[in-house]
């Protein structure tokens, strides 16, 4: 069974002081931490491309796992909607070349935003098991600094740049359990790019998250014959502190602190937010069962149960 063997990440050291940025929009520190959730927003260097962030994350994964050799990689999936340059060729091909991976690697992109990691791990699992592949790399990198307008108060205080790399293969310490997915394209206008600039209808996105995510997770738990108190942690997309808190309050049978909130130094990193949580909080934990949920652009959402075998 293909599962999650290891996760590594790359978060740029440089970035934006969100308190200073908030002051420009007359937002105090209480708002920045209480509602936004992020005091610092990492930013890639102007010379860095999306593929460069991917390479940094994968190299960190190789460094953490000396037994994982480049020549053993069979599959590479990059989850991004902000690929290199104009988006053609696919970023995964560029990453394959920059990493010096063998040319027998199957490499392709998945164009999804904040739900992308949940979709990505199941796409990788299904692809690898269907084709008999042994070692896959799922990489997330969606640097919104490419598209966010620094004068747009609805977006510029939210997003940080980051990349993650997940090694998927056999004999993994974390297995993929039941999952559920959904799409509502009628909500596409609420999160979109026009003329190279990102637009977000914050109120509509918040309402979508609050109405859809708790119900979706409850359905997943019911279909898995699980109760919320049987989940060790909920690692949901870190859209904002307000969103995570609001979703947590919809679970009366689970303590609020089971909903991991950790975005103070990263911001909303889109498809990287869930694997950043898993890397930091799950991999070395004593947890046995974790619920994940990603939601955003599309509108798209996906939830799943991860468990130890």
UniProtKB/TrEMBL annotation:
GO biological process: fatty acid biosynthetic process; secondary metabolite biosynthetic process
Record has Disulfide bond as a keyword: no
GO molecular function per UniProt: 3-oxoacyl-[acyl-carrier-protein] synthase activity
Keywords, ordered alphabetically: Acyltransferase, Transferase
Transmembrane segments: none
InterPro entries documented for this protein: ACP_syn_III_C, ACP_syn_III_N, Thiolase-like
Acyltransferase listed as a keyword: yes
Gene3D superfamilies linked: 3.40.47.10
UniProt xrefs under Pfam families: ACP_syn_III, ACP_syn_III_C
Domain Beta-ketoacyl-[acyl-carrier-protein] synthase III N-terminal: 108-185
Top-level taxon of origin: Bacteria
Occurrences of domain Beta-ketoacyl-[acyl-carrier-protein] synthase III C-terminal (ranges): 221-306
Name this protein carries in UniProt: Ketoacyl-ACP synthase III
């Amino acid at each position: 069974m293909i599962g999650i063997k290891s996760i590594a990440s790359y978060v740029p050291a440089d970035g934006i002081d969100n308190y200073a940025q908030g002051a420009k929009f007359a937002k105090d520190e209480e708002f920045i931490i209480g509602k936004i959730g992020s005091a610092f927003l990492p930013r890639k260097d102007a010379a860095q491309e999306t593929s460069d962030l991917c390479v940094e994350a994968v190299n960190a994964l190789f460094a953490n796992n000396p037994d994982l050799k480049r020549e053993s990689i069979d599959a590479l999936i990059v989850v991004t909607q902000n690929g290199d340059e104009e988006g053609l060729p696919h970023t995964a091909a560029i990453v394959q070349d920059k990493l010096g991976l063998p040319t027998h690697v199957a490499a392709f992109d998945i164009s999804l935003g904040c739900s992308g990691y949940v979709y990505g791990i199941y796409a990788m699992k299904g692809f690898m098991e269907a084709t008999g592949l042994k070692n896959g790399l799922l990489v997330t990198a969606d640097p919104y600094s490419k598209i966010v307008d620094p004068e747009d108060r609805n977006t510029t205080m939210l997003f940080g740049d980051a990349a993650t790399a997940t090694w998927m293969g056999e004999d993994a310490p974390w297995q993929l359990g039941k999952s559920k997915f959904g799409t509502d394209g009628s909500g596409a206008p609420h999160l979109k790019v026009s003329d190279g600039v990102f637009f977000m209808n914050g109120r509509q996105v918040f309402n979508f998250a609050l109405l859809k995510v708790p119900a979706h997770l409850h359905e997943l738990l019911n279909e898995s014959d699980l109760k919320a108190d049987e989940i060790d942690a909920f690692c949901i997309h870190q859209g904002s502190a307000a969103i995570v808190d609001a979703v947590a309050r919809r679970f009366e049978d689970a303590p609020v602190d089971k909903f991991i909130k950790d975005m103070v130094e990263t911001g909303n990193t889109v498809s990287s937010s869930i694997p950043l949580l898993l890397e930091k909080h799950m991999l070395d934990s004593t947890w046995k069962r974790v619920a994940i949920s990603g939601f955003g652009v599309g509108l798209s959402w996906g939830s799943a149960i991860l468990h130890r075998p």
